[in-house]
Amino acid sequence: MTDPVTAWHRLAGSAVLLDGFHALKHAVRFGAEVPVAVTADRAATLALADELAPDVRDALAALLTEVPHETYTSFVPRAHPTAVAALAVRPSRESNLAKLAHTPRKAPVVVLDNPRNLGNAGAVIRLAAGFGATGVVTTGTVDPWHPTVVRGGAGLHFATAVERLTVQELPSGPVFALDPEGDDIRGTGLPDDAVLAFGSERTGLSPELRLRADHLLSLPMRPQVSSYNLATSVAMTLYHWSTGSGAAL
Ligand SMILES: C[S@@+](CC[C@H](N)C(=O)[O-])C[C@H]1O[C@@H](n2cnc3c(N)ncnc32)[C@H](O)[C@@H]1O
């Protein structure tokens, strides 16, 4: 068996860093391939698994190798309170594209049109995982697998299909674009094959996305407020989809 230090250095450049116990737990639950996982305190980590994640306790026990605390801290930008870190294989673009293209779709795809804030993108991936969305697509320059986005996603990138595409490459399905100027979302039911698009934090929806949109919807908001935060807008919209409320289109 390769020692964890050699494996870490060999893989760190190309793999996805799972920073902390919860990120590793989520990634394992959702089928991530994890070639190396370390802890500075194996007994404490397995006690945490017994308490919080008995479903993956044995899988974690098989993956985790104890290393000295200094070795662990040399692997991560900032030590995590759980002193756990792992590297996972990023799913191939082909497999994500196949999931995004699969029909009939049972849950919407979320599109972030040129997001600028990496923490927001991570929070949206966590939301999409929680609601069982088919995927999260970003347009623009941000890589949705950037380490800061992965940190915000708490290991849940493996629970939904996360890819960057152009507006022209968006998956099929009716596009519902969210914008404060749209029709009140409460009057509209969102179908399971919806493509739910949200604008950039700075500039809102791009002209390309507006052209592609079939419906423009707004979230209820007092007139004096200009807009909501991007991730909270996604949360309200996915919640609206999950309730099945609003008139069916
Ligand atoms: C921070 S807002 C963008 C604000 C930007 N200055 C603008 O001009 O739209 C980010 C995104 O969240 C969504 N959003 C925020 N508030 C909304 C609302 N009241 N109704 C619908 N969408 C909203 C939209 O998709 C928006 O593009």
Automatic annotation (TrEMBL):
Domain tRNA/rRNA methyltransferase SpoU type: 109-239
SUPFAM superfamilies xrefs: alpha/beta knot
A single GO molecular function term of this UniProt record: methyltransferase activity
InterPro entries in the record: Alpha/beta_knot_MTases, rRNA_Methyltransferase, SpoU_MeTrfase, tRNA_m1G_MTases_N
Phylogenetic classification of the source organism: Bacteria, Bacillati, Actinomycetota, Actinomycetes, Kitasatosporales
Protein name: rRNA methyltransferase
Biological process terms in GO annotation: methylation
Organism: Streptomyces djakartensis
Gene3D superfamilies (alphabetical): 3.40.1280.10
Keywords on record: Methyltransferase, Transferase
